[in-house]
Task: structure prediction
Amino acid sequence: MSLQEEEKAEAGPSSASASGSSSSATASSVDTLPTQEALPSIPEEGGEGDGGDGRGPAKAWGRLFGLSPGFHNLDCINGEYSFGRDPSCDYVFQRSAELYQQSSKKHFRIIREEPGLGVGVAYLEDQSANGTFVNGTLIGKGKKTPLANGAEIALALPFHKVFFFCDLMSDQSMGFPPALKEKYVISKTLGTGACGEVKLAFERETCLKVAIKIINKKKCLLENDRPLNVETEVEILKKVDHPCLIKIKDFYEGEDFYIVLELMEGGELFYKVRRPAKLSEETCKLYFYQMLLAVQYLHQNGIIHRDLKLENILLSSPSEEKCLIKVSDFGQSKLLGESSLMQTLCGTPDYLAPEVLRFESGAKGGGYGRAVDAWSLGVILFICLSGYPPFSETPQKCLRDQICAGSFTFIQEIWDHVSQEALDLVRKLLEVDPIRRLTIQEALLHPWLQDEEMKRIFQELVSKAETAPNLLVKGRKRPRAEDELVGPTKARKLQQ
Ligand code: ADP
Result:
């Protein structure tokens, strides 16, 4: 029976307008997480009782987080739950739910089996001809699949995500500080960095999704000859307040360091720039404008990022190309006074400015300053516009020589599709002499960026983000390029 037929048979003709009013596709699960509902607290680990014998509350073995409007959270305590539109289901889909139209009377079941001592396995059994997807894979009517921690469940189409599954019995949060576990439910890994990994987590009270950056103390000490820069990273994160810079929510120290950050659902810019499906020039401009605003703000507050690269530019939306971006990872950043120059080599080789490389090889000059960030942004803009890196090791010329000479690989057929203005900005940022290189402020005044429509889109995105709690921390000011200018007094204060 088709969905429409099922719908009619079930509700009669009067339901036609209700079913027809279902809203359009969900833009992002960030927008749609139900936040009204307070979560029932998860019983303490090791607590007693089975919920039916009067010995205390039952222990939830799993939790489903609703990812779409109308799909509320569920703590799984019993051995089995059925899901669907049928009133006999344990979890009945609400008529008002956005993806109600895509659901069946009996859509799927979740079963927990206890094959051995305390070793429970959760399964999802697809009961619907419309299809149930787990992590993008169709399960198929009558078939079942193990449900691992972090699994995403979708109805009818892989992107119609309705639940995120957290296995509360898995040991994914072992070793985490109790205060962190009390406040957050830790879930899947989002990315890995130099010193650990970044995990998705949910704030228990609000259901907000966050990212937790775990800095593995042992790994960092073993692999880095430099001392841990966690304190500076956290200090900077606490100070910065700009819509294009990642904001910290919490910080914990235990076996490792745990930095709780606002979540960027779109992941790294790195994955968006590959040819042939590279970004349009318009989108590059929107993203680059935001990067410049972010770095301008940092420089005005006495902070040099020193590790700007595609992997550290995160996107707010996984689906919308026109979205907010945020600069992340202050692990290499430096707080410095007006006149100070840095003297340590850091950053990722492909994005390193010539003066950093020259300094490393013992050249005179006393160190390097803010201009290194402008160079790295030049490399990022080059890749965004062309889909390939300006400097890369070849048998003929090593990376260092190419960078120090500023001789980037120029493929005419590719750049034929890019405006002269954009190329001019790239050239002026990839200027070998740091004195002649454009500053961030000057880059913002470059003709390529004098685009009122692009700036309007940016302002609109910021306004939208103000109402999406996961994207902007409450109470943050709406930015304008001119608002971000801070005088020397504030800059000094931020440096203290
Ligand atoms: P490291 O400093 O150890 O290199 P990063 O801060 O660069 O770690 O994070 C590593 C990866 O984790 C990033 O490249 C990105 O894929 C992911 N990540 C980091 N922060 C967030 C975030 N706030 N939201 C979503 N993903 C993130």
